[in-house]
Amino acid sequence: MGDNRTDYERLAELNITYIDALRHSDAGWFDDQVGEDFICSNPDGTLFAKRAFLAHVAKPFPVTEYQAEEIKIRPFADFAIIHARTRFKTAEGKVKRGRTTHVWVKRDGRWIVAAAHETR
């Protein structure tokens, strides 16, 4: 049976899974879900291509209580942009906020992450 969810519903689910995979250092999920041409813009201004991003994600996640809030999902024909405010706690227990933007593209009927931008 086919997947009858709308693109918006599928992207909302994928966004939840993205955040969960990040919290659990699940590089395997990201290996399957990000494109080979993926680029991540990091809070310190550096850029990670897919392999560097996977190596970074595989390390223990450096913050706790990481949450995405104020999520805005903007699907277009074959791409989507997801914006969110992030809230997390540092190892020292300090609560901080940031922003995240993920660009998703639909390739061969499947949504994959093409780019990410993180601020803290």
Characterization of this structure:
The structure is a single chain. With 120 residues, the protein is α+β, with helices and mostly antiparallel strands. The protein is built from three helices and six strands; from the N terminus they run ααββαββββ. Strand 5 and strand 6 form a beta hairpin. Helix 2 runs antiparallel to helix 3. The model has no long low-confidence stretch (mean pLDDT 93).
Which helices and strands appear, and what pairs or packs with what?
Elements: H1 7-23, H2 27-33, E1 34-41, E2 47-49, H3 50-58, E3 64-75, E4 79-89, E5 95-107, E6 110-119
Parallel strand pairs: 1-6
Antiparallel strand pairs: 1-2, 3-4, 4-5, 5-6
Nutshell version of this structure?
Helix content is 28%, strand content 48%. The protein has three helices and six strands; from the N terminus they run ααββαββββ.
Features:
single chain, Nuclear Transport Factor 2, Chain: A, 6 strands, alpha+beta, six-stranded mixed sheet, 3 helices, 48% strand, 120 residues
Q: Unreliable segments (pLDDT under 50, ≥5 consecutive)?
A: none
Outline type: globular
The helical percent reads 25-40%
Number of β-strand runs: 6
For the sheet with most strands, the description reads: 6 strands, mixed
Q: Strand-residue fraction?
A: over 45%
Kindly give the count of domains. Answer: 1
- Output the CATH topology: Nuclear Transport Factor 2, Chain: A
User: What is the CA-atom radius of gyration, in angstroms?
Assistant: 14 Å
Strand order of the largest sheet: 2-1-6-5-4-3
The first-to-last residue Cα distance is 42 Å
Annotation field: number of helices: 3
Name the CATH class. Alpha Beta
> Which sequence of SSEs, written as H and E, runs from N to C?
HHEEHEEEE
| Nearest-integer average pLDDT | 93
